[in-house]
Design brief:
homodimer, 282 residues, alpha/beta, Rossmann fold, 2 domains, 6-stranded parallel β-sheet
Chain lengths: 282, 282
């Protein structure tokens, strides 16, 4: 695996791959890689000739009160995991390389960026859309792999790609979970044992919602109430939101007609965690 | 000249040119082409192997009270002018081709987009940055030619390209003028004879500012007052702004130290016109 820290090095490598007719795959990450990231990398490797993974903890998507400085980092372990997954080139730019001067350009996807995660993190998706647009421009035409754990983020990126005609195929990949159902996340590293156990309440809330739907319940108010109750029963968890939304637009709905998406966010110990799952009523 | 109306046709043509190692040049326009546009095209043709010109009257950069519907169009004459300049491919997409659904993604360049043109047109540069980002993504890596007549626009685009790492070289090209000094503009077509004569007041205001600077005046207040007086002496003109700004950042300055940029905007008859010029005190 070729490791680079500058944009021109990555661009030269990827441009020459494309010039040879090779398909480029991209897995953008914030590092502290786990099996979820590795599943994106393995999928990219299986579908592309050359895979670039990026590691960049993007300051733009953290609010001043968030965990930017504390965000876990382990470049040695990350490099090993990426190499093991078959990544061709690892781009790990510094903040100065990415933002040599104050970034005054921002990309905003309205509607999809509102509500849910934006309730707690109002500037988050603008920071995400901006850095992802930049990474797309650095990497060039490619297949780009994102995890479905950040479901709203995936919807924001898909819409940005469509609205701005990026020459990019966005591929959403299934959530990878621990044995007890907890969605893998770099922020799970903050959890002490009791928090780690409590954190399963997110997945249990989703399961409770799906169970009601499978039993025929269609009222979003009723389903959300059942989901909330699961999180609220957990002393170590503080509910941020539960939501049952239109699967495509993430807009609010009153009744589940066919497809829907269930989402949950809660603070468990020091970590703000999220999870989601699909329900198909067809 | 190959004329296409869809994004995939343009992309296929340009991708295959790049695959042959050819340099692509881009001249984005809103049509109703004049000698100013043609000079951009000729420059692009002289520096690139393959030149794409685009014609798209972009609704996003017009406010509801502006001249979107009235904006002059002449596709036959435009095609002839572009072909004569040596353009390889003309992309003239419909609004539905560019925006098949409501565009919810926007690109904003703060700071540079504020003041000057944004005083009268507060949402203008967001519309410009968004469509130019989209055109850059459609066309792919290239040299992109923009006229210096839209000087603030050029600054906004340069900064967007730098902040978001577009793989694009932005090339600013000198203003092309009528014999009497009026900067060429599609909006000159709105001017009746008396307005056409009055419209030279923009260039005369810039000349008055430069004359003062050359005589040693360095106070921006004094220079702007002299420039304003020229426009205000013209009955058929209504001054929007005159400005002497830092040449690079377009920020306000009190004294001209070395380089500066002079800008003017005024309504003449039905047309809102702009002009600008550089002053180098070195």
């Amino acid at each position: 695996m070729y490791t680079v820290h500058t944009i021109p090095q990555a661009r030269a490598f990827l441009d020459s791959a494309r010039a040879r007719g090779q398909q480029v795959g991209l897995v953008p990450t914030m590092g502290f890689l786990h099996a979820g990231h590795q599943s994106l990398m393995r999928r990219a490797v299986s579908e592309c000739d050359v895979v670039v993974a990026t590691i960049f903890v993007n300051p733009l998507q953290f609010a001043p009160n968030e965990d930017l400085a504390a965000y876990p980092r382990d470049f040695v372990a990350d490099s090993e995991l990426a190499a093991e997954a078959g990544v061709s080139i690892l781009l790990a730019p510094s903040v100065d390389e990415m933002y040599p001067e104050t970034v005054v350009t921002s990309v905003r996807v309205s509607g999809l960026s509102d509500g849910l995660e934006s309730g707690a993190r109002p500037t988050h998706f603008e920071g995400v859309a901006t850095v992802v647009a930049k990474l797309f421009n650095v990497v060039g035409p490619c297949r780009a792999y994102f995890g479905e754990k950040d479901y709203q983020q995936l919807a924001v990126i898909r819409r940005m790609v469509s609205d701005l005609s990026f020459n990019i195929q966005v591929i959403g990949c299934p959530i990878v979970r621990e044995v007890d159902g907890l969605a893998m996340s770099s922020r799970n590293a903050y959890l002490e044992a009791a928090d780690r156990e409590a954190a399963t309440c997110l997945r249990r809330a989703l399961d409770a919602g799906v169970a009601l739907l499978e039993a025929g319940e269609r009222s979003v108010v009723a389903i959300e109430a059942a989901m909330s109750a699961v999180v609220e029963a957990e002393d170590r968890a503080t509910l941020d939101y539960v939501a049952v939304r239109d699967a495509d637009t993430l807009q609010t709905i009153a009744q589940v007609e066919e497809d829907a998406h269930l989402l949950v966010a809660a603070k468990v110990g020091p970590s703000r965690l999220i999870d989601n799952c699909a329900f198909s009523g067809k």
